[in-house]
């Protein structure tokens, strides 16, 4: 398996009661909620004015700002971060940052609500890098940037993943009549976390496994997902690359079962694999 395709899952849980914030601030003109958390603890600047330190959770005048986070402990290798944010009246803007030694090793999420005319709940997903796979409540929905319409109001888990980067999952609150935007930044996967011995069933150019086996075809994403069952809703267990060959174990309604690592098996779409018997 291509070691760059391995993912380290970072779970960030942020249950945001946006409706509660709207009610709380409904009688305060032109004021919204701002919540900022970071690791490590950092000083918060809005338009170069010191606001406070993380964690921060308070109301603030609505408007567009340049937010900057500066780590308090200068002995750490964490780099500063800045980005434009919007604070909307009566709504919450949530900023979560994991500050690494550089932008590539940093990660985080920004969440904010916008009022829409449609009587539905929408969720808009953006990511750095873009074209990341978006999964809502365990079901793959497409790639970022992506707008999900007619989302059932209430709590949902939204995950994004991209080969060579950490994955992130955020728990969100979808609200009817509003579009919730989630901006993800994925950190590049550290080399020492992504190293792995090649699977014993993955065969090099000069050697083929015992028949029957499958050869992975080219895919739109440059990799193929291995799942725990013959369904797109089954859990993703690995990612494999085009050209690799794996022992064939069985098939079921357009899916092939393969052995993709020592003692590990899973299911892949037969659409992207050629079986040799």
Quickly list its features.
277 residues, mainly beta, SH3 type barrels, 2 domains, seven-stranded mixed β-sheet, five-stranded mixed β-sheet, 4% helix, disordered N terminus, SH3-like_bac-type, PEGA, SH3b domain-containing protein
Short recap of the structure:
The protein has 277 residues and is mainly β. The protein is built from two helices and 23 strands. It has two domains: 3-185, no CATH class; 198-276, SH3 type barrels, CATH 2.30.30.
Q: What is the CA-CA span between the terminal residues?
A: 22 Å
Count of individual helical segments: 2
Q: Helical residue percent?
A: under 10%
Beta-strand proportion:
over 45%
When the domains are counted, the total is 2
- Helix-strand string: EHEEEEEEEEEEEEEEEHEEEEEEE
Whole-number radius of gyration?
22 Å
Major β-sheet strand ordering: 5-2-8-9-16-10-13
Overall shape: it is elongated
Average pLDDT reading: 82
Q: What structural class do you assign from the helix and strand content?
A: mainly beta
Main sheet? Answer: 7 strands, mixed
Q: How many E-type strands?
A: 23
In the predicted model, the low-confidence regions spanning at least 5 consecutive residues are: 1-27, 192-206
Topology record:
Elements: E1 9-11, H1 18-25, E2 31-39, E3 42-46, E4 49-53, E5 56-61, E6 63-71, E7 81-87, E8 92-98, E9 107-115, E10 121-128, E11 133-136, E12 139-143, E13 146-151, E14 154-161, E15 167-174, E16 178-185, H2 191-194, E17 213-216, E18 224-227, E19 236-240, E20 245-251, E21 255-261, E22 264-269, E23 273-276
Parallel strand pairs: 1-15, 2-8, 10-16
Antiparallel strand pairs: 2-5, 3-4, 3-6, 6-7, 8-9, 9-16, 10-13, 11-12, 11-14, 14-15, 17-20, 17-23, 18-19, 20-21, 21-22
């Amino acid at each position: 398996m291509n070691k760059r395709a391995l993912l380290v899952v970072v779970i960030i849980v942020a249950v945001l009661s946006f409706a509660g914030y709207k009610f709380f601030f409904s009688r305060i003109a032109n004021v919204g909620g701002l919540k900022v958390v970071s690791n490590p603890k950092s000083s918060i600047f809005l338009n170069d004015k010191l606001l406070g330190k993380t964690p921060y959770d308070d109301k603030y005048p609505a408007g567009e700002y340049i937010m900057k986070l500066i780590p308090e402990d200068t002995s750490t290798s964490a780099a500063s971060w800045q980005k434009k944010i919007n604070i909307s009246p009566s709504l919450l803007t949530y900023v979560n940052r994991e500050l690494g030694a550089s932008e590539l090793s940093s990660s985080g999420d920004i969440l904010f609500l916008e009022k829409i005319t449609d009587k539905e709940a929408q969720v808009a997903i953006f990511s750095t890098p873009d074209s990341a796979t978006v999964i809502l409540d365990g079901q793959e929905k497409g790639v970022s940037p992506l707008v999900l319409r007619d989302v059932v109001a209430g709590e949902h888990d939204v995950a994004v993943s991209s080969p060579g980067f950490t994955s992130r999952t955020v728990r969100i609150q979808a609200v009817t009549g509003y579009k919730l935007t989630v901006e993800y930044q994925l950190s590049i996967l550290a080399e020492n976390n992504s190293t792995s011995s090649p699977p014993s069933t993955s065969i090099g150019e000069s050697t083929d496994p015992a028949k029957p086996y499958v050869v992975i075809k080219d895919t739109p994403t440059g990799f193929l997902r291995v799942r725990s069952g013959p369904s797109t809703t089954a859990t993703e267990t690995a990612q494999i690359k085009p050209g690799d060959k794996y022992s064939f174990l069985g098939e079921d309604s357009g899916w092939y079962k393969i052995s993709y690592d020592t003692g590990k098996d899973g299911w892949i779409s037969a659409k992207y694999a050629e079986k040799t018997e």
